[in-house]
Design brief:
Rossmann fold; 6 helices; alpha/beta; 230 residues; globular; 10 strands; 5-stranded mixed beta barrel
Amino acid sequence: MIGIIGAMEEEVQELIADLAFAEKKTVASMDFYKGTLYGKDCVIVKSGVGKVNAALCTQILADFYKPEALINTGVAGSLDAQINIGDMVVSEDAVQHDMDASAVGDPVGQVPRMDVLAFPADPVLVKKAVEANQKANPDIQTFTGRVASGDQFISGGEKKKQIQENFHARCAEMEGAAIAHGAYLNKIPYVILRAISDKADGSVQMDYPTFEKQAIVHCVRLLRELIPML
């Protein structure tokens, strides 16, 4: 069983439409759709936006469906000048950029009393996702690296600079590291797939409505190629 989480309806609706023999189960106001997707047993869910929703969703998946792998799909803002709108970032690890217990001696981003700062993605899933994206979306660039997550929409300025300096992350969004945290604690291999919808540079009002739809198209194409490989 493969668990697929998207934060927003737009990120999962095409996948749910492609799901065969779907069964729906609602837990914590989240709808979980279980069935066959591109030849594999999958469960697809819209978590809602933010780290709390994402963490709750991950734990429900772990408890009810026992997935062998977790995939988080969605959009993000670029933190790297090389990464353009439309490009794809595949996580190597994920960190919570808004976790800050530095006043008691922990590095910024470190969850106190956890044994890692950033939660590592599964290297096999990362490798397959890169290969799948290069086949599915040959017209865009594919990057691997760190995903930075927090309960903030990053749109430039000092916050973007801090995340870049503290974490050297490739992109910023609002759910991935919480899913990674849940996957780590439950010992479930995971990977985050992020299509770039904006540059996190203050131009979001112009970029986001225009490019979000195309970014989601890239994610869906990637998953159509990736799921049969798992």
